[in-house]
Amino acid sequence: MSTEEPKPGKKRASGPPNVMADLLSKSKVADATPCPNCKSYMTGESVICTHCGYNSQTGKNINTRVIDAPKQKKVKAQRGSSFNFDPMLTVWAMALFYGAMSVGIFLLPDLFIALVLIVAVAGLIVGITVLVTTFLDGDIFWGIVMLIPVINIASIYYVLVIYQRPVLRAHWILAVGANILVAVLATSYGPEVAETAKAVSAVFFSHLA
After folding, report:
1. Domain count, the chain
2. Do the beta carbons of residue 127 and residue 175 sit within 8 Å?
3. Which of 3-12, 23-32, 96-105 has the highest mean pLDDT?
4. What is the separation, in whole angstroms, between the first and last Cα of the chain?
5. N or C end of the chain, less CB within 10 A?
6. In a domain, 122, yes or no
7. Distances (CA, A) of 79 to 35, 40, 84
8. Which of the listed residues 8, 35, 63 is the one where a domain comes to its end?
9. pLDDT score for 133
10. Residue-level pLDDT at 114
11. What is the largest CA-CA distance in the chain?
């Protein structure tokens, strides 16, 4: 019986490729050998066992130590109110106070002297604060101008136009308005009270203007 030889250029059909065998042949796990020390498997190219630290070339174990990562401290959420205080509320509070005192004077005239003293002290504090912050803000020239009595009226322009602190500017304007209010009310309480109010206001303006 004769067998036909395959014609040139034609190949015999081979069976389906063994994919698993091909993957195993390319995998390093196929060449793994057990570690002589701990019997954990080492790949063929490995020299040191990653499990116990055994060195297959020196026959010694490498001392290893596992260091835990530092634990991060938990940041406790700060408990507090969600209310944000607006500094301008202090201006409105002082304005309401001055208004209430002005109305109260018609019921209790003795409150007038108290109002004069409060307006003078509050205005003096505002004037000194504006002066100090002027130097702190680097406006040395304007700070010096505010200290010179002859030309300190220029401080009005500085506070209204150049000054960069709106809350203090509002307090300064309120203080000026309160002094004008005191001067107007003084006309209703006789010459002695008026002179007292003028004297207190003069002290105030000498530090404010």
Report:
1. 2
2. yes
3. 96-105
4. 132
5. N
6. yes
7. 57, 53, 14
8. 63
9. 92
10. 86
11. 152
